[in-house]
Amino acid sequence: MTYLLLFLLTLSAFWFGGWHWALFFAIAAIWLRFEQIGLWLPPFVWLLAFIWTGDRRLYFPFVIPLIVLVWGGQSTRAGWGLVALFTAIRLAQGASAKVLAVELAVTVVAVGAPLWLGRQATSPGARWACAMLASLLAFAGLAF
User: Fold this and answer.
1) Which stretch of DSSP H or E encloses residue 103?
2) Which of 10, 31, 114, 131 could form a disulfide with 70 if both were Cys (CB 3.0 to 4.6 A apart)?
């Protein structure tokens, strides 16, 4: 059942968002534990918002909570890997240096603050709250 849900979520990310949404989700899901599948679902609020609005900038708040969930799961190397993957995707999309600099600054705050606040967060609920904080910070960062 869990693998079926993972497949359906990845397929929906691909169908509605494109290859970069699906790739990022699938790679992040590899590091997330299957018994905490509920943690995967909140980033998909941004996919639904993208489907509704067509605003491709919503990819950013989709990505950030996945980074926090992986990084908060004590996998620092995987967290840095996801930041590098996000940067590579944005470069492939032709993002300017100015846009990348703003995204990096917002990423530092959006990922760093919840990780600092939740460094003792071991329960799924606390990790979910940290991911949601990161997601909202990333969304607020779209104003820049």
Assistant:
1) helix 97-117
2) 31
